[in-house]
Design a protein that fits this description.
Belongs to the Toll-like receptor family. It holds the Pfam family LRR_8. InterPro entries: Cys-rich_flank_reg_C, Leu-rich_rpt, Leu-rich_rpt_typical-subtyp, LRR_dom_sf, TIR_dom, Toll_tir_struct_dom_sf. This protein is of the alpha/beta class. 19% of the residues lie in helices and 15% in strands. It contains 17 helices and 46 strands. Strand 35, helix 5 and strand 36 form a beta-alpha-beta unit.
């Protein structure tokens, strides 16, 4: 520390070298000692659309490298057995946590306490047997909790105390036996709306056992519980609208006791399927809820069917009736006679083979009829009486033929389901009366010929499903009558021929599925798709589309599909080497997604994508391209997702000048490039996700930048980077890329070590010499530095000084100080002086006493003689006083010479010489003739600056004048 009095010295020539050495040492330290930065790569998971998804099914602990910004976390189907609050300490914005199908056995002490934003928690299919104290502490914002399929039998009184905002609780398929467990849950959840307790071991349900709970339930599911006694003696369910109860596996009758019909006055949907009780008890039950009931399910009750259906239909408000899982076999004319108010009737899964013609005659208001999963071989003639029918489900029967009168008079029908039957063929009049039909499902039949069924009828049909049949060709104008059709499913047939005009009339079609047929390239030479001007999605995957070269086609197959957004020609099975014509995509100016995966392409022309400037997603994986050119991908500058796995690529250099500034997702697995260069990564500034798994990397300095980028990148998620392995050199083979030591990649390592070692040796030598020859100065500077710090803190506090002046003198000059100076200044003039022999504090370091004395006095009087200049302690006192002089910029120093000292004798004492150039002084030898003038000048010097607000320096008159 310098005093600010010496001349500025030039910096040593070695200072810049020392800085370089420091930088080098810092870099080496960061590489060798510091832990790697937490880059955006995860060990077992990946992040997609802000949801962390963990793929490793053997995962046993919650990963700790999940980004804190994720809102969803999928840990389903893992081997996790325990969880703690520390597992989720950084996931403050997580809203959905899925722990379905793990091995979790205990929940206690708030394992989710840090998930303050969580809204949905799934713990299905675990091994929980008890919900301990504070199991869900901290989840004050949780709205949905699913605990089904565990072994829960005990619930702690504080387990649910934090779930004050819970809306849905599913604790079905556990081992709860008593109402006490339910009370412990319900008493803490005033906002609960849906409570599912299906398939537990409850034997009773009594309202007085939960009367202390504030229940706002809208839905309650108690089904599949062996409840023997159901009693409600109070209005505990004022808002309940959906109620499910019944157990088909129980043979013990349930006693129903609801004291007042108004207790369930809001129930509009009731499901008593499988309820084991008498018909009379069912009648009492139905009378309890018949004030507002609109939907009733009475499936699988083992009683007289006719009486049961009559009891159900006798409720005037019931409009939806489900009567399934019986062995009815036939429906007579009288079976549904009383169901005049029913609008929706479900008779599925009843083994029905025959329905009388007048079976539905009384049901003029019926809108929806479901007869699926029966054994009907024909369309029932009974439905012809249902003129108001809007939805008819005849799926999963054994219907083999359709006649022209099967759907006569069904002019209001909007949805017809005939899938999963045995229909062999259609007729041209089958659907003639279905003018309002919008959805027709005919998939999974045996249809081989359409027979013109869609050439002139069904003007309002929007969705037609013909997939999974045995169609081999689409003839001319086969769908001409379907002018309103949006979606056409023809996949999984055997189509190998498309007529030029097969899709005429489908001017409004937006989506057609033709995958998994036998369509060949020759079929695409036709103008089959030219009529589909509004088509947006076309799937031709898993066909046999194959070209032998990239020669342009005279008539590109999609040239008229200017609105097409998605095209797929992917293949599932190998079909031999092929190419794509250079103008295959001509006309697709609005194409956004193109899938050519596994087409065995050997090359792609540079002009392939010049017709698709808006392309955002491109999948050309699993081909044999080996190289890609910059010219080929340069036209698709809007590309966001690029799949290039299994292409046998040797390099990614084609990205460098392609200008793909919008690319966010890149998957390049199973290729042969070993080095990822800096230019490649920097050419993709928007990259958010990259997957280079199953490539063989060079573990040498060529990949040093890539490895550093993996560790440091905060923008790009590098998927499964822990599974990146080395292939070269041999000593690193089969080792992880992350284990490669970057220290060996520092350039000129030998020279750096030499310079570093030299700098360190020079630093030690310089420090040793400085300490040996300037030990006293360093010691003084240390104390001066602390004095300066003390003064910086205290100089504005205006603390009064203890003395008027500190007298600095040599012990040889003490007689003059005691005999002359002290009597005059203290005795006559009344100044308070500080003398070291009298006022220094015993036991305190001398340097500290000097500093305290100088800063504790308004002035410092230096009594200078030859002996004074030679004294080490006097020199330190002058140094401290001069430092204060220049620090405070005030006249605080008075120089008194006891003897005349020539200037040349002051040269060795450079500090004193500099002070004389800037500061006036008094001389005692020259005042011998007029001592009164000397003492008056000294008095004036002591008086100057006595005002604390005085900023000007009052100088003495030169005593030599």
């Amino acid at each position: 520390v310098t005093m600010g009095l010496e001349d500025d010295k030039p910096k040593p020539r070695g200072e810049s070298s020392f800085s370089n050495c420091s930088i080098t040492f810092l870099m080496i330290y960061m590489i060798c000692v510091s832990p790697p930065a937490s880059g955006f790569f995860l060990r077992s998971c990946r992040v997609s659309q802000n949801v962390a998804i963990c793929m490793d099914s053997q995962l046993k602990v919650v990963p700790q490298d999940i980004p804190p910004t994720v809102t969803g976390f999928d840990l389903s189907k893992k081997q996790i057995s325990s969880i703690q609050a520390s597992n989720f300490k950084n996931l403050q914005v997580l809203t959905d946590l899925n722990l379905h199908e793990n091995h979790i056995t205990n929940l206690h002490n708030g394992p989710f306490a840090n998930l303050i934003s969580l809204r949905k928690l799934t713990l299905n299919n675990n091994r929980l047997s008890k919900l301990g104290d504070g199991a869900f502490d901290g989840l004050s914002n949780l709205a949905e909790l699913r605990l089904n399929t565990n072994k829960i039998s005990v619930v702690s009184s504080t387990a649910f105390q934090s779930l004050t905002r819970l809306k849905l609780l599913d604790i079905s398929q556990n081992k709860l036996e008593t109402m006490a467990n339910l009370r412990l849950m319900l008493q803490h959840m005033p906002q609960l709306q849906e409570f599912v307790v299906r398939r537990n071991s409850l034997k009773t349900f009594r309202s007085w056992e939960v009367t202390n709970c504030s229940l706002n339930l809208r839905a309650l599911d108690l089904s599949r519980n062996p409840i023997r006694d159901f009693r409600i003696t109070g209005d505990i369910f004022p808002n309940l609208t959906r109620f499910i109860i019944g157990d088909s596996s129980s043979f013990i009758p349930m006693k129903w006791d609801v004291k007042n019909k108004t207790f369930l006055r809001q129930v509009s949907s009731l499901d008593i399927s499988g309820l084991h009780t008498t018909v009379d008890d069912i009648q009492v039950l139905l009378e309890t809820v018949n004030l507002s009931l609109t939907s009733l399910s009475v499936n699988g009750i083992k009683h007289n069917w006719t009486r049961l259906i009559n009891l159900s239909c006798a409720i005037p408000t019931v409009s939806k009736l489900q009567f399934c899982h019986y062995n009815l076999r036939s429906i007579s004319s009288y079976f549904l006679k009383m169901c005049t108010n029913v609008i929706e009737l479900d008779l599925s899964n009843n083994h029905i083979k025959r329905i009388d013609t007048n079976a539905f005659k009384s049901m003029e208001s019926l809108r929806i009829l479901k007869l699926s999963q029966n054994k009907l071989s024909l369309v029932p003639t009974a439905i012809r009486t249902l003129r108001n029918l809007s939805e008819l489900d005849l799926s999963h029967n054994v219907i083999s033929t359709l006649g022209c009168q099967d759907f006569s008079n069904q002019t209001k029908l909007k949805k017809l389901s005939l899938h999963n039957n045995s229909i062999l063929a259609l007729t041209n009049c089958t659907f003639k009366d279905l003018e309002q039909l919008q959805t027709l499902t005919l998939q999974s039949n045996q249809i081989s010929d359409l027979k013109g069924a869609f050439k002139q009828y069904l003007p309002n049909l929007k969705r037609l499903h013909l997939n999974g049949n045995k169609l081999t060709a689409i003839g001319k104008e086969e769908f001409k009558g379907l002018t309103s059709l949006w979606n056409l499913s023809l996949h999984q047939n055997q189509i190998n021929n498309l007529h030029n005009d097969c899709f005429v009339g489908l001017g409004n079609l937006t989506d057609i599925q033709l995958q998994s047929n036998d369509i060949k390239a020759q079929s695409l030479k036709t103008k089959a798709f030219h009529a589909l001007a509004k088509l947006r999605r076309l799937d031709l995957g898993n066909n046999h589309i194959k070209y032998f070269n990239s020669t342009p086609l005279p008539d590109p197959p999609f040239c008229n599909l200017s609105h097409l957004e998605e095209l797929s020609i992917h293949a599932q099975h190998h079909r031999g080497k092929s190419s794509l014509p250079s103008n295959f995509l001509e006309g697709l100016k609005n194409l956004l997604r193109f899938n050519a995966r596994n087409c065995q392409l050997t090359s792609l022309d540079n002009d392939t994508f010049m017709y698709t400037p808006k392309l955002e997603r491109l999948d050309i994986s699993s081909n044999d391209l080996r190289t890609l050119s910059t010219q080929m991908i340069a036209p698709i500058r809007n590309l966001r997702s690029f799949y290039i796995s299994r292409l046998s690529l040797q390099s990614l250099d084609f990205f460098v000048d392609a200008n793909l500034t919008n690319l966010e997702f890149l998957q390049g697995r199973h290729n042969q490039y070993s080095v990822i260069t800096e230019d490649v990564i920097k050419s993709l500034p928007s990259l958010a996700y990259v997957d280079f798994k199953y490539n063989t990397f060079y573990c040498d300095c060529d990949n040093a930048w890539f490895l550093n980028w993996i560790i440091a990148s905060k923008q790009t998620q590098v998927n499964d980077v822990y599974e990146y392995y080395c292939n070269y050199p041999d000593e690193f083979k089969d080792k992880r890329l992350l284990d490669f030591d970057l220290i060996s990649c520092l350039k000129d390592m030998g020279f750096i070590c030499f310079v570093s070692t030299t700098c360190m040796i020079l630093f030690v030598i310089a420090g040793s010499f400085t300490y040996h020859f300037m030990r006293a100065q360093l010691y003084c500077a240390y104390h001066l530095f602390w004095a300066w710090l003390f003064d910086s803190k205290c100089k504005n506090q205006q603390v009064p000084h203890q003395y008027d002046a500190f007298v600095s003198y040599n012990s040889n000059d003490e007689p003059w100080v005691i005999g002359e100076l002290l009597p005059k200044l203290e005795g006559e003039q009344g100044w308070r002086l500080c003398l070291h022999h009298r006022d220094f504090e015993p036991g305190k370091p001398i340097a500290d006493n000097i500093t305290d004395a100088i800063y504790g006095s308004r002035k410092t009087i230096c009594v200078i003689s030859r002996r004074y200049l030679e004294s080490e302690w006097c020199s330190r006192e002058v140094q401290t006083a001069s430092f204060r002089l220049f620090d405070e910029k005030r006249d605080v120093l008075i120089l008194v010479f006891l003897e005349d000292i020539p200037t040349y004798l002051l040269s060795p004492f450079h500090r004193m010489r500099k002070l004389l150039k800037k500061q006036t002084y008094l001389s005692w030898p020259r005042a011998a003739a007029q001592p009164e003038v000397f003492w008056e000048k000294l008095k004036q010097a002591l008086q100057s600056g006595s005002n604390s607000n005085e900023d000007n320096v009052l100088s003495l008159t030169d005593a030599r004048e």
